[in-house]
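Saturday, quiet lab. Running sequence design on the structure tokens for the scaffold JK sent over.
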């Protein structure tokens, strides 16, 4: 059950990161300018949305998941070392 909880936590962090990255990107002045929120839609460019949005979504999903996985791996290594040192004390 512990492994399922860690996997579920990683998925939740990845989803939250992807949604958060898209929301932050959407509210930047640069994106709003490309979407035409300037005077009389000057500078409207939907190509910027089509090229930037997939990268923003992927970066928002991959970076938090990678940090989560690194943290889980490091905690697992530390926990593994402490258990192996306790086991060697009892067998000596």
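Result came back. Writing it out in full:
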């Amino acid at each position: 059950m512990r492994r399922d909880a860690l996997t579920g936590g990683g998925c939740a962090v990845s989803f939250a990161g992807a949604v958060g990255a898209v929301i932050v990107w959407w509210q930047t002045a640069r994106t709003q300018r490309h979407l035409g929120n300037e005077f009389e839609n000057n500078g409207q460019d939907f190509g910027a949305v089509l090229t930037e949005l997939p990268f923003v979504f992927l970066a928002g999903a991959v970076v938090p998941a990678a940090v989560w996985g690194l943290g889980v791996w490091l905690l697992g290594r530390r926990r593994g070392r402490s258990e192996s040192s306790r086991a060697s004390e009892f067998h000596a």
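Notes for JK: The mean pLDDT is 80. The first helix runs from residue 2 to 26. Ask whether to fix the surface positions before the next round.
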